Amino acid sequence: MNVYDFDGTIFYSDCSIGFALWCMKRKPKLWVTWVPRMLKTLVLYRQGKVKNYRLQREMFSYLTQIDDFDEQIEKYWDKYESRISEWYLAQKKEDDLIISASPACIIGPIAKRLGVNFMASEFDREYGVFTNNLMYAREKAKYIIDHDLPVIENFYSDSLADTPIALCAEKAHLVKDKATTVVDWPKLDPETLEKVKRKIDTGWGVHLR
Fold first, then answer.
1. Looking at the 3D structure of the chain, how many domains does it have?
2. Is residue 139 part of a domain?
3. Cα dihedral value 55, 56, 58, 59, nearest 10
4. Can you give the CATH number for the domain in which 54 is found?
5. What's the mean per-residue pLDDT of the chain?
6. What's the pLDDT band for 209 if we cut at 50, 70, 90?
7. CA neighbor of 29 nearest in space, from 61, 62, 69, 71
8. What confidence tens digit (pLDDT) does each residue in 113-157 have?
9. d(C-alpha 119, C-alpha 197), whole Å
10. Secondary structure element (H or E) that encloses residue 33, with its range
11. Is beta strand 171-176 parallel, antiparallel or unpaired with respect to 117-121?
């Protein structure tokens, strides 16, 4: 089984942010009802006053205000499905697993189009809360271990924050250059490893450019 991160790995850019921008163009009310609150939470997060989980919850809260979500998400993927990386499409298999911190309601439709399995953060669009753990960093590895999944032959990600799940794979690969270049997962020296640990704890990904 091969396992893939999604945003920045097999899809160029971040689909959660992309879909938010898509909705803001079509639902101008979000500029008043969501953007100011989101920016305030981001400032508080930067100041260390709120946790990453709270930041992500606020970020995804715009989904509670999209009354025609099913229609909009399909239109979004109609336009942006073409951003799926060519290298991935060339090697895609039916037993592939996409595992992503983005909401399942956004990842699910594109995974269905690709015909592969997925696990993502479950976000309740009615109540604006997570109904499982945020699928980020350690939680990805925990999911693999807890569910006794088949051996991971290859793991792919654009972020060193995914080192915990990379260590679960027989071979790990780092994706660079806007999701176009695949290289071997780097050997982490003590200084870089410490940086990775700090970034995992604070909730921001670690990227190599």
1. 1
2. yes
3. 120
4. 3.40.50.1000
5. 91
6. very low
7. 62
8. 999 999 999 999 999 999 988 888 888 988 988 888 889 999 999
9. 23
10. helix 30-33
11. unpaired
